[in-house]
């Protein structure tokens, strides 16, 4: 676990460096509020671990990892506006703290900084742009043509959460100069982890305590959002089993990768197990 914390620390240090360079001061303060208020940094750690798994270094991948974390955070800022959620990561959400206009500007600023980091590699820019298209379709679907069954829910989960996870891992593979087959296998691994993560997130919203979770619960039901509990006939226990099946699919995809660093691979395997067992 010490090595994993070193990777997180590397990401955190680079995040602070990027944010320190943001101007003007008002935007800097708003970005700092949303980015440095906590977070598990799962996506950038996936980027780093994917890179190391196939022979790259953490330093090779850290900028791409920071970039995908900024994209993810930008999407959360918008999510909180849509959901009218006043709490994020145990603190005030951007719109609740600064207002709707500044929150939207903060989201735009985060995306600008992210794509500056991806601009050194056209393939990285393409991967992230595609993931954002998928995310946008997912968000639009959630607001309008809501899924009505498990198959449609799974498509939504892939777009809403799986797409950014896929991009995170593919970015790591690209940073290591991997071939397209390896990029795809690592992408499938991460996409399935992301789907499992989303299913578990929906279950926690339905059954967890808000104080333990660090954000309001019951939002999906109150807003009639298409969570796995609301859309399907699955009980929370059955939904958790579905998440575990996706996690197993992720593990199977990872087994197709030609591994250089077994320790990094072991952490990716551990992540696939963690996302379905987490309590927050």
Automatic annotation (TrEMBL):
EC number: 2.5.1.1, 2.5.1.10, 2.5.1.29
Keyword Oxidoreductase: no
Domain of life: Archaea
Record keywords, A-Z: Isoprene biosynthesis, Magnesium, Metal-binding, Transferase
Any one GO MF annotation of this record: metal ion binding
GO BP: any one term: isoprenoid biosynthetic process
EC top class, as a word: transferase
Pfam families (UniProt xref): polyprenyl_synt
Cofactor requirement: Mg(2+)
PANTHER family: FARNESYL DIPHOSPHATE SYNTHASE
Family under the similarity heading: Belongs to the FPP/GGPP synthase family.
Protein name per the record: Geranylgeranyl diphosphate synthase, type I
Native organism taxonomy: Archaea, Methanobacteriati, Methanobacteriota, Stenosarchaea group, Halobacteria
């Amino acid at each position: 676990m010490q090595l994993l914390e070193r990777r997180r620390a590397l990401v955190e240090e680079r995040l602070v460096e990027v944010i320190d360079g943001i101007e003007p001061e008002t935007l800097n303060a708003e970005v700092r509020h949303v980015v440095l208020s906590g977070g598990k940094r799962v996506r950038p750690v996936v980027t780093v671990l994917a890179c190391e798994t196939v022979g790259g270094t953490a330093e090779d991948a850290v900028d791409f990892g920071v970039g995908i974390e900024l994209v993810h955070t930008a999407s959360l800022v918008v999510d909180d506006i849509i959901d009218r959620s006043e709490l994020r990561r145990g603190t005030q959400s951007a719109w609740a703290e600064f207002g709707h206009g500044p929150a939207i500007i903060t989201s735009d600023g985060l995306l600008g900084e992210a794509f500056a980091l991806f601009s050194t590699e056209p393939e990285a820019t393409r991967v992230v742009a595609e993931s954002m298209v998928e995310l946008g379709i997912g968000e639009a679907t959630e607001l309008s043509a809501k899924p009505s069954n498990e198959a449609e829910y799974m498509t939504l989960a892939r777009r809403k959460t799986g797409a950014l996870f896929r991009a995170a891992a593919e970015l790591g593979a690209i940073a290591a100069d991997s071939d397209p087959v390896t990029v795809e296998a690592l992408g499938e691994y991460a996409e399935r982890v992301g789907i499992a993560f989303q299913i578990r997130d929906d279950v926690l919203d339905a059954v967890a305590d808000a104080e333990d979770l660090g954000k309001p619960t019951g939002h999906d039901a109150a807003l009639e959002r298409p969570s796995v509990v609301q859309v399907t006939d699955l009980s929370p226990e059955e939904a958790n089993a579905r998440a575990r099946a996706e996690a197993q699919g992720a593990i199977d995809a990872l087994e197709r990768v030609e591994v250089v660093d077994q320790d990094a691979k072991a952490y990716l395997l551990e992540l696939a197990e963690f996302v379905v067992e987490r309590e927050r």
